[in-house]
């Protein structure tokens, strides 16, 4: 019985009852002989309430102070959780990110972990305590200022601590039963995945699956820390994410892991670009100079008659305005006809390492969409993923059709709640 | 123009509006050419809400975790205050007690400051920033755990920082205009005191005046830091507490500084104590072994016929039950007849260094009470204070009578709000 890192999200510790329930589960792991380190997020709506207060005093809050403010959230939840555990007769100590040795760079609101020096945590668990660590936060290496890790930060804290402490597993407790073959809110017959490789999980995460964030899975893959995503409301096995199949039910890797969708992106089309070297580069240099991230990029064959081509790309809707502005400004230099902006799109992705050796996958995918009457606007593929852009209105239809076509539908409809705070 | 430490209590920063108002006042001091260090308490009811949460998860919260929890309160207010100042175009940085170098012992919930090493604060203000420091909190010297300073802790933080930074003055902003000659809720004609010596302020504080706590005044006296108690709602001069009269209106020290009252104590009478050496010692050893603090102690002359005497003492009501239990248990050993417990009492104290050389003060005091028909149950005096215990019902009558008798009544009724979070 080794060391286990458990992470509980904000919805699992939303109120005193939730905290007491989580405390019981933690104590169980301890009773089973594990050393236990727990990473916890802020309670339910705390973060939103703090953001609301910040907006009341300042329209553009300073990064340093915003981080100082937000980290109060985990301070509350971790202290309460430690109290609840002690109330069950077990020893517990809470630690801030700084006390736990989570060292980051100085980029406030989205700091990256540089190093983890968990000396105090090791000391605490070796003395028989359960250690409770604030997720989402760290301390900057140079200035010793409090930082936060941005969206999904608590998951990253958990995986980083698991790596530094050489834990057996990092358990991510959430309000769903695991990772599903599709979003269960859209596909009623979506199945819980028992095991998925890091590689496929990375593709799902970057294709719109919100259970685990890309960054956290990447960290786990680099340090080879198995992640077990499971519900804090049930005792069921969830989804293992690792290099090799794990747990009581080892399985062959499926050809297809799942179908993800994403409606948070917009599409920009640059119309009438001269088809000559350097044009695409000029366009994407303009975008990257504005510090915007783009996702899919597609260029069609140019029409022979005009020597002009169109370049389309997708990016987060929230960056759409900024990108249009930058491109409009650069138009005289780059030389294109016009810009088209479209935020009524959806991206549907099929992910699975098995498609490498199964040439029929692409055909089946397109047939399924076509049979469902869904029009495809853009296509982009990697070795283990196919993504298409469709109308936003078609997204549910499209996901269900693809899910069915690849035999992913379960026999029964599973009852799941889907959500989470994203912290 | 030197360095000023300003402290704002929870009622001054109860909401976003309050924070913005306080930010303006801080910026004014900065514009006037001062280096400014601000100590801030938790917003309004935050502390009570956190205590309520703690009680929901654990009936007896651990001291270490309770401190971790409560310190979230100042983290929120200080970050918001720094944001609000930056929004006014001035640079501000917030610091936790630990970052500000407030080093304490390890007694959780009521830690004492051992040392202040404000290197980061000095650096921040020398770089032109306004430094915002969390009141009420520190870090323990040996274990590096987060501690809190207990009731009135933020005032103590402010005075300790003022001493370590060699500030010109420590301004304590509150929701009253200063220290009054009596509680204005009881005596409508109470006057604001322009200047009071450390010595008299210490006696007032230990006699029930709640504007400044004993501990904070003691600290200020030891390091000779002038305190200016004033309202955060007005720009008026408040009360200066210092060795020598200060400010634009230096004054002679009055014979009497003020009248304080306290209804938070109970009286225990040990009846029928054998009048022989060692009996009183045995009683008070019993009390101190239970870690209870007592206030007034009075022993009457014993009745010659019985050789028995009564010993009475007062102590906080909250400790009453524990003291009665300890004494009851010790009765067989000590040997007394019975115990009487009375929590319907009030203590009225007259404070003023001038009474040392004015022999008539005591007589005037007792005459005033007698004329008001107030019965005296216990009397205790120091060189600059007379305290009596009366029925709780008589307290207002008694305070008003004494206030009047010593010519403390002002000509006009001052409009004041009286309250405060005591943190």
What does this structure look like?
The structure is a homodimer of 423-residue chains. The first copy, chain A, is an alpha/beta fold. The first copy, chain A, folds into 2 domains: 3-245, Acetylglutamate kinase-like (Carbamate kinase); 257-407, VC0802-like (2-Layer Sandwich). In chain A, 33% of the residues lie in helices and 25% in strands. Chain A has 12 helices and 20 strands. Chain A has helices at 16-31, 46-57, 63-70, 72-87, 119-126, 153-164, 198-206, 214-223, 279-289, 320-334, 360-371, 395-405; strands at 3-8, 35-40, 92-95, 102-104, 113-116, 130-134, 137-140, 146-148, 169-174, 195-197, 227-231, 239-242, 258-262, 265-274, 297-299, 308-316, 338-342, 345-351, 378-382, 385-391. In chain A, the strands form 4 sheets. Chain A has an 8-stranded mixed sheet with strand order 3-6-2-1-9-11-12-10, with helices on both faces. In chain A, strand 15 (297-299) and strand 16 form a beta hairpin. In chain A, helix 1 crosses helix 4 and helix 6 runs parallel beside helix 8. Chain A is globular and about 80 Å long. The two termini of chain A are 29 Å apart. The interface between A and B is large, with 41 and 41 residues. Chains A, B: It is an enzyme of class 2 (transferase). Chains A, B: InterPro entries: AceGlu_kinase-like_sf (IPR036393), ACT-like_dom_sf (IPR045865), ACT_Aspartokinase (IPR054352), ACT_dom (IPR002912), AKii-LysC-BS (IPR041740), Asp/Glu/Uridylate_kinase (IPR001048), Asp_kin_monofn (IPR005260), Asp_kinase (IPR001341).
């Amino acid at each position: 019985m080794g060391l286990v890192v458990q992470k509980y999200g904000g919805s699992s510790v939303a109120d005193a009852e939730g905290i007491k329930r989580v405390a019981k589960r933690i104590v169980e792991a301890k009773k089973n002989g594990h050393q236990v380190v727990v990473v916890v997020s802020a309670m339910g709506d705390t973060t939103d309430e703090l953001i609301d207060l910040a907006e009341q005093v300042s329209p553009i809050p300073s990064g340093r102070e915003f981080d100082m403010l937000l980290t109060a959230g985990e301070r509350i939840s971790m202290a309460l959780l430690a109290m609840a555990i002690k109330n069950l007769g077990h020893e517990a100590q809470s630690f801030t990110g700084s006390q736990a040795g989570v060292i980051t760079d100085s980029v406030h609101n989205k700091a990256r972990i540089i190093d983890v020096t968990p000396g105090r945590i090791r000391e605490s668990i070796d003395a028989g305590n359960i250690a409770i660590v604030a997720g989402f936060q760290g301390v900057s290496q140079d200035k010793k200022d409090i930082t936060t890790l941005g969206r999904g930060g608590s998951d990253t804290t958990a995986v980083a601590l698991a790596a530094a402490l050489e834990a057996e597993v990092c358990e991510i407790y959430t309000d769903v039963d695991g990772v599903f073959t599709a979003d269960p809110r859209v596909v009623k017959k979506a199945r819980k995945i028992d095991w998925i490789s890091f590689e496929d999980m990375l593709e799902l995460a970057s294709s719109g699956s919100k259970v685990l964030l890309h960054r956290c899975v990447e960290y786990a893959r680099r340090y080879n820390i198995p992640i077990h995503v499971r519900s804090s409301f049930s005792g069921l096995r969830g989804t293992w994410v690792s290099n090799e199949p794990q747990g009581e039910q080892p399985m062959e890797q499926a050809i297809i892991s799942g179908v993800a969708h994403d409606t948070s992106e917009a599409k920009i089309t640059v119309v009438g670009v001269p088809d000559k070297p350097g044009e695409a580069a000029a366009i994407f240099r303009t975008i990257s100079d504005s510090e915007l991230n783009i996702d899919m990029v597609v260029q069609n064959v140019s029409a022979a008659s005009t020597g002009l081509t169109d370049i389309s790309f997708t990016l987060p809707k929230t960056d759409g305005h900024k990108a249009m502005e930058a491109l409009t400004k650069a138009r005289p230099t780059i030389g294109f006809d016009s810009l088209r902006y479209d935020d009524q799109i959806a991206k549907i992705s099929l992910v699975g390492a098995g498609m490498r050796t199964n040439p029929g996958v692409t055909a089946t995918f397109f047939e399924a969409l076509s049979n469902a009457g869904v029009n495809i606007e853009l296509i982009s593929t990697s070795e283990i993923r196919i993504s298409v852009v469709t109308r936003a209105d078609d997204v549910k239809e499209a996901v269900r059709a693809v899910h069915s076509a690849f035999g992913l539908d379960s026999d029964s409809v599973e009852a799941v709640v889907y959500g989470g705070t994203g912290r």
